[in-house]
Each structure stands twice: as C-alpha cells, then as structure tokens.
Amino acid sequence: MTQFTLEVLQAINDWQRGGDHKQKVRRGAKLQDVALTLPERFRIFSGPCYRQEAHEKDRVWQLLAENALPETIASWTSDLSTAKAFKGGVPPEGLQGVIFEIVPPADSVVLNLVEIYADSAFLAAVDTHKGEIVGFGSGIGQYGGSQNEVVLELKNLNSVTIYSYGGYASNREMLAKEYFGHEPSPEELAQFDGLCLRAKISERGDWWLSPDGTKNVLARMEPHIENLRRLRH
Fold first, then answer.
1. For residue 170, what pLDDT band results from cuts at 50, 70 and 90?
2. Is 20 exposed, middle or buried (0-12, 13-18, 19+ CB in 10 A)?
3. CA atoms of 201 and 25, how far apart (whole Å)
4. Contact (CB, 8 A) for 166 and 90
C-alpha cells in the first residue's frame, strides 16, 4: 500500500491552500499528524530557511523590544528569492517587511515539501488521486513545488533571525544611507546606483536591505529600543 494515501495528499493540499489563523492551526496540526506516517527523510532539512512577514507596530515591538515573536506551525522556503517575492514582494507602506533566516533545529521540521515534490512516488500518487482531492486547484494543483517549502514548528523568533528589512524610501539618498549605514559619498551613491540597476529595483522605491545593511539599522535602533523598554517597565 502506498505511503502517500489520500489522507496524506489531502492534508498537504489543505496546508498549501492557506487560510485564516484558525484554518492554519487546524491544518498545521493535521499535517503534523500525517507527516509522522511518512519516512523520516521527509522530516529532515539541513539548509537555511527563509520566511517573509509584514509586521504592524505590535509585532515590531514584540520582535525588537521583547525579542520573542510567538510562532505556530508555519511555511518557510529554502529559496531566498521566493521569500523576497512572497505576496508581491515588499509589503505596502505602513507595514514593516521582514525576512527571517534560520537553520531549523532537527525537531522543528514538520514536513520537507522540497523533498516531497522531488519524490516520484508522491507525484504518481497525486496524479492518481487528484480528482479526489478536495480543493486541488487551489492547493497542490496551483502551487506544486514552486514555493520550495519547508514546514516548521518554532516556538518563537528573535531578532538574531532577522535577515533583511524591507520598506520604501522617497529617494535614493535615503536608501543608500540605510544600505551603507552612513551618509553616502558621491562614489558610494554611484556604487549604489549600480547595485540598484543590477538588482532591477522598481521605480516605486521598494527595497530589501542587505544583511549588513539590516544589521546597521538594528544597531542604530538599539539605544531607542532600550529606552522604550525602561519606560514600559
């Protein structure tokens, strides 16, 4: 009997369909249950994983000031470009875009969908049962393995896992200042223009900072965060 039963396929499909918070929690729990029926190799991932989120002010505070952002079972990706492009790229103005990077602890991997979608037996099972999978067209049928997804269960995230901040700036001088961590010289502005050209930065001015640029931003914010911590306590 195949290990990729209809129940397993339906759980993977439902997870990939997404949904609201309650659906995510329920579907995550089901995915975790069925994953335990599969070989261990589908619950292993050793490389870095990335996740993009759009934070309102309360989430920004939890992450930076409390250094503990609560997490549930969630989708991550092994591909940085997929994380950067998630939901159209940099979140709209008013939200803080952030990309996390983590090498997941062994016991945090719920299901490695990269490995699943590389398995010929899984693909054969999908082909056999796709007519029986509820919502197939908005799950497996829509996404397949395109998201390079790894499903993780982490208790929380801290500021150490921040890989990149994203946002908008009104002009290239402001963006370059964030990138270099100081007022850019004419030579640095020219260098920055070249980077933007190669990265195909859009005219609307959205930008994912480099890891070093993000570290510079966090370092400059730390004194202000510490003041806010004291005021709250």
1. low
2. exposed
3. 36
4. yes
